[in-house]
Amino acid sequence: MTYSYGSNHLLLTKHTYIKLENGTKKPWPREEEINADTLIQLSGGIDSTYVLWKWLKENSDKFAIVNHIVLKSYECRNEKELKSIDDILKWLDNKGLNNYFYIQSEFDYGNIPGTSTDVEVCGYFAGLILKTARFYNVTTTHLPIYKKDSEREERRRFLTNFISKKEIEFIYPISHMKKWQVISELPEELFKLTWYCRTPLNNEKCQRCFSCVDVENSLKQIQDEKLKRFLEGF
Fold first, then answer.
1. pLDDT by residue (tens digit) across 10-32?
2. Among 169, 204, 179, residue whose Cα is nearest residue 49
3. How do the domains of the chain map onto residue ranges?
4. Beta-carbon neighbour count of residue 110 at 10 Å?
5. DSSP 117-176
6. Across residues 137-150, what is the average pLDDT?
């Protein structure tokens, strides 16, 4: 598998050294030297980027497991998401927010007529990661979801617990927020690195899918809030 991200934090499982972009190698810490505290799955979208950025910023003395799943489907957005992941992680590194281990996995829907929801795939891979000996003591995951009590989330939680063979604490940091609030808190340059379109057209955002429409409406809401505060004298 080819990893697009050249970070020193790419977790290698078959070697005792990390190969850097310049070709040199550096020893990887032994398991007892650095432990992880939580799992955060990063799609490259706005919500997961926000959750990761905020957690790294507020937990500088801890380490997160960051997992990106290259989802290959008829939507054909996996390459754009992978580029976004690369840009986001390098941005975080440059800001000193490098307290994480990066794991990249891949799932191809192939020509299955109809697919399961992506959160089910995410729940499966979360369980696999948290089942490993290296991260078996990790029992929390932070999820970038607004509606935590949905049927989809119940399925994700079931799969993660079932595969990992333990009880996981599922934390939903943005469940009390709106999309426009998440965008307004996210640094603007980091927001511009995200990829949220579900169905790219000609390698650009389609401006039609529910995600593109949601972001557009949220940006309008942010402008309305700024105007409201201005008129109120803030």
1. 555 554 555 555 666 655 555 44
2. 179
3. 17-177
4. 8
5. -HHHHHHHHHHHHHHSSTTTT--EEE---S-TTSHHHHHHHHHHHHHHTSPPEEE-TTTT
6. 95
CA 87/CA 190 separation, integer angstroms: 9
Q: Quote the pTM value.
A: 0.84
Which helix or strand (DSSP H or E) is residue 222 part of? Answer: helix 210-231
What token pair was written down for 97? 């927010």
Q: 10 Å Cβ neighbour count for 182?
A: 21
Rounded to an integer, the average pLDDT of 23-44 is 74
Percent helix, strand, coil in the chain, to 5, is 40, 15, 45
Fold of 17-177: Rossmann fold (3.40.50)
Residues 6+ apart with CB under 8 A from 52: 40, 42, 64, 66, 88, 92, 100
Mean pLDDT (the chain) is 86
How far is the CA of 32 from the CAs of 133, 135, 139, in angstroms?
A: 12, 11, 17
CA atoms of 26 and 148, how far apart (whole Å): 41
| Whole-number pLDDT of residue 50 | 98
